[in-house]
Amino acid sequence: MTSDRPSLAFIVLNTGMLWLATALAAVALWPIYHTPWLVVVVAGALLVGSAIALCGAALRWKAPVVGLVTLAAFLAVGVPLAVPSQAQSGVLPTVQGLGDLVMGVALGWKQLLTISLPVGTFEALLVPFFTLILLLTVVSLSIALRTRRFAVAVFAPAVLYIAALMFGPLSPRYPVLVTLLLAAALVVWAALQRSFVRRALVRRSLALATTGDDEQASVHHSLSDDTRSPRGRTSAGGVVAGGAVAAVRTALSAVVILALAGGAATAAAFVLAPTGDREVLRNAVVQPFRPADYVSPLSVFRRYWTEPTNTAVLFTVTGLPDGARIRIAALDTYNGVIYSVGDEQTGSASGTFTRVPYEFDQSSVSGDSVTLGVEVGELSGPWVPTVGSLQSVQFEGADVAELQSSFFYNNTSGTAAVVGGLSAGDSYTLTAVDPDQPAADAVAELTPGGAAVPPVSVIPEEVTVAVQRYTADAETSGEKLAAMLDGLRSDGYVSHGVGDEPASRSGHAADRISELLTEQRMIGDAEQYAVTAALMARELGFPARVVFGFAPTGQTAPGQVTAVTGADVSAWIEVNSAEFGWVAIDPNPEARDIPPEVPQDATTIARPETVIDPPAAEPAPSEVQDAPRVQEDEADEPEPSTNVLFAVLQWVGSIAAAIVVVLAPFLAIVLAKVRRRRLRRRAPKNLDRITGAWREFEDAALDHGYRPPSSATRSEVAGVVGGASAAVLAAVTDRAVFAPSEPDRVEADRVWRAVNDLNASLDSEVSRWERIKASVSLASLGGYSGRNRTKRGGERL
Q1: Residue 550 in contact with residue 326, Cβ under 8 Å?
Q2: I need a surface site. Which of 49, 448, 702, 751 has the fewest CB within 10 A?
Q3: Are residues 542 and 684 in the same domain?
Q4: Distance (Å, rounded) from C-alpha 742 to C-alpha 740?
Q5: Is 548:328 a contact under the CB 8 Å cutoff?
Q6: CA of 702: how far to CAs of 232, 247, 251, 699, 790, in Å?
Q7: Judgement on whether residues 584 and 469 belong to the same structural domain of the protein
């Protein structure tokens, strides 16, 4: 850090532009938090960070002191701003709040990736970006006010914006508009810094011209690089003439660069359109709850009908609407053995579970608001009873903190779970939206929707045959769906295979579904009928899934407590329609007497016919159940490290593409200068080649910061640059222009070699960063390059 104090104008410029750019970048945080408190957090971090940086510049604190003050401020204001629920009286930090604040710095980043958005002020999830904004503000403003590389400060808001996009949702709001506005703010900030440099140089040069005293012309410390660069050797007259148009030229340069960048980005968006979904960091994080690690609830359907579970109170519900069904899990993945909850590894959106911060935004769901109180009895397992589309859940009791932090929800399927499972005595209150559903007789009017569900690997042939039989007289998709459901209800009989009921084998593997459709009497229960109906709906083109849950019998009054027993277990289907979204349909036949089986004709049985080889021995049921899961895991489930590596590679590719887009305008400038030089050197006439060489040198001087008067002669330009070589080049060019004869090719080549040497000397006198800036400078492409200046007598110089 330098020891010079920044001027008030430079402080106001950088502080104001940092606040503006940070505010624009923070717009990308809104989808993550979606709470007005975010404005308070961003403003507080900006104010505290700016105060620290300004005090550090004024009092000339060393870097370690600035760091310690920043840490102290973080601990002092972090709890009321980033963990407001743990602040005493909303202002004073508590011990618990300080612990959450410190832990949030380390763990908050991953927690943001494993929770549903938006998170509001839930727990300590504001801590990560509060910390980032505070640190970026302190670092950025300190760099701008206390170092020679003040231009680096403009990158801080861009870092915040990129981080917000990486931790945000798959579909950010207004990404193009916010990106362009932020880019404009950063370019204007950099341009204003450059304009400030030039105006300060004008004042310094005037002071040098009038007093000759360097100390009287001292300017802001951040100009020290430039005062030692060739810009510091500009003549007084040249600076006076060039300073008047510096701001205009800087603004135009900024507009040109921004226009080129915007055009390149727009063209890239159309030409290089993404072929898949947008990737964010939350896609690469291994979710804490994976439904594939648990047994499908449908596979234990019959257990609820056995003693004593069928009469045990699994849980009680208060406020259940009349006729409402309680959902446990939505199952959309069928492998021919088990219908299960989707798995993120197989590409199913229903397999990704996230934490619920405080509520889900269900404003897009049309229906009635429902509030239920649930108390757990004999129910066990990870699945949490819910209804409709969940908005919020609040646990009660001694384990409230543990249950709340381990509660996960999948909004695609409406399935909730608690890692570790529920236990007797747990209770919670949930609010949800019970979606509007079409009338039962309106099923025939439905058309298939566009919801994505995993493909079915095995559909028994008997399912296809039955669909064709049931829908032979139907025409539209909805009519076929209604006909299929009517066929199942009319042909089917219900038996759970317990007590004195007729035999009914449990399970819903492909062979059980084939048996259901080919036996003389179609006997099964909700487990088989729901799976069969879902497979048939898939055959008809409807996205479909099976829902496992409970359907309490009898009417319920408002505020009445409903006791749910094992005998209330049920399963139904949901089909996705273009009109209503997911529509719940009960495909189960009504309970009725099952007729006795009609004996087969003995003569038919005894009649000898072609000898058929006995079927191959079928493996044990456990083998049938287990084999597909092993094969699926081995074939389809990549290692978590592979997913992370793939996501990292995608991000690297995206960042590389973004870098190319950002560098495209600068590359265009370099290519324009290369083409200009080539045209000058390959001019058909030797005189044009010599004058072109002079213009190449003059443009190089402009790009390196020299500012001769607008009507300067070649000798005056050489005087501004300084050195004997420049003066000799000016004299040689003047002699060639005013000589009576055409110069020869050798002389033209000699002039070009001299120009190359002069340009090399200009580069050798400055730093590498100055050489890069000169190569992309627009000074020689603006009002100087290619202008026709006339000398007395009208001849072009």
Answers
A1: yes
A2: 448
A3: no
A4: 7
A5: yes
A6: 13, 15, 17, 5, 19
A7: yes
Are 114 and 186 in contact by the 8 Å Cβ rule? The answer is: no
In the chain, the number of structural domains is: 3
Higher pLDDT, 72 or 769: 72
Structure tokens at 121: 């002020």
**Digit-coded pLDDT (tens) for 453-489:** 888 888 999 999 999 999 999 999 999 999 999 999 9
pLDDT at 222: 38
581 and 679 together in one domain:
no
Could you please report the per-residue DSSP string of 321-372?
PTTPPEEEEEE-EE-SS-EE---GGGT-GGG--EE-SS----TTS-EEEEEE
Tokens 């296809």 — which residue? 464
- Distance of alpha carbon 189 from alpha carbon 15, whole angstroms: 10
Per-residue pLDDT tens digits for 42-81: 999 999 999 999 999 988 899 999 999 999 999 999 999 9
Output DSSP code: residue 557: -
Global model pTM greater than 0.70: no
Residue 659 has pLDDT above 70, yes or no: yes
Q: Is 117 in a helix, a strand, or coil?
A: coil
| Cα 585 to Cα 192: distance, rounded to the nearest angstrom | 65
Co-location of 266 and 295 in the same domain: no
Euclidean distance between CA atoms 332 and 220, whole angstroms: 67
Q: What is the CA radius of gyration of the chain?
A: 38
C-alpha distance from residue 16 to each of 27, 251, 272 (Å): 17, 18, 36
Would you say residue 283 lies in a domain? Answer: no
DSSP 300-325: GGGGGGSTTTTTSEEEEEESPPTTPP
User: Across-strand partners of 384?
Assistant: 416
Q: Which domain holds residue 496?
A: 291-592
Q: Is 674 left (phi over 0), alpha (psi -120 to 50) or beta?
A: alpha
Helix locations, 61-122, DSSP H? 63-82, 95-113
Residue 348 is assigned to a structural domain of this protein: yes
Let me know whether 97 and 237 are in one domain. yes
Its sign, for the CA torsion 440, 442, 447, 452, is negative
In a domain, 792, yes or no: no
Question: What is the DSSP secondary-structure string of 437-490?
Answer: ---GGGGGG--B-----PPPS---HHHHHHHHHHTTT--SHHHHHHHHHHHHHH
Tell me if 206 sits within 8 A of 179, measured CB to CB.
no
Locate tokens 């030692």: which residue?
A: 228
Task: Say yes or no: 418 and 378 in one domain.
Answer: yes
Looking at the domain assignment, is residue 640 inside a domain? no
Query: What are 184's two structure tokens?
Result: 């404009």
Phi, psi of 125 (to 5 degrees): -80, -5
- Cα 18 to chain centroid distance, Å, stands at 24
**Cα–Cα distance between 325 and 692 in angstroms, integer?**
85
Asked if 727 and 714 count as a contact pair (C-beta separation under 8 A), the reply is no
Q: Which residue has the higher pLDDT, 770 or 479?
A: 479
Confidence check: pLDDT of 611 > 60 = no
Same domain, 360 and 470: yes
Flag whether pLDDT at 742 surpasses 90: no
Question: pLDDT tens digit string along 320-368?
Answer: 988 889 999 999 999 899 999 876 555 567 777 877 766 777 888 888 8
Would strands 522-524 and 492-494 be described as parallel, antiparallel, or unpaired? Answer: parallel
The answer to whether 106 and 127 are in contact (CB under 8 A) is no
Alpha-carbon span 556 to 576, nearest angstrom: 29
